[in-house]
């Protein structure tokens, strides 16, 4: 399982048609019961980056993983055909990374130069190939296809898939969400 409270609780909420950012105490009680009592006994690890270990070592039969990390792990596996990646359903998380320069950074011009470098098309293609994520740059999918990059179904999502993705948010229930995550980890003993 991902070592991250939001998508951990999300698997229950999404499967049961509940907004994964709910603050309803009854929903939180229900997810805690399911995760701690029903699911925890079957969890052997909490690992947000199984591509570097669990997948290549084939130490688990079922994993929850970020798409780019799963792709990397499958590439590193001695038996890549052992693995099948699927996008979580009926709903899943919409995630994104970004580059930001902190106010008051000592060398903002160097930070801008680095970002400008990273945004160059050839660098973006190398990024997609290595990290396995859509970088959001116009035309990058077509560039990746033309370059013959593999497993692009794990990188780029169609409109129907994107419609199943939901943004997270911090809510007043954050402390409870983290407490449930900790309780599940303790119950799993992983």
Automatic annotation (TrEMBL):
* Classification via Pfam families: SBP_bac_8 (PF13416)
State if Signal is listed as a keyword. Answer: yes
Task: Enumerate the UniProt keywords alphabetically.
Answer: Signal
Which protein are we looking at? Uncharacterized protein
Supply the source organism for this entry.
Microbacterium maritypicum (Microbacterium liquefaciens)
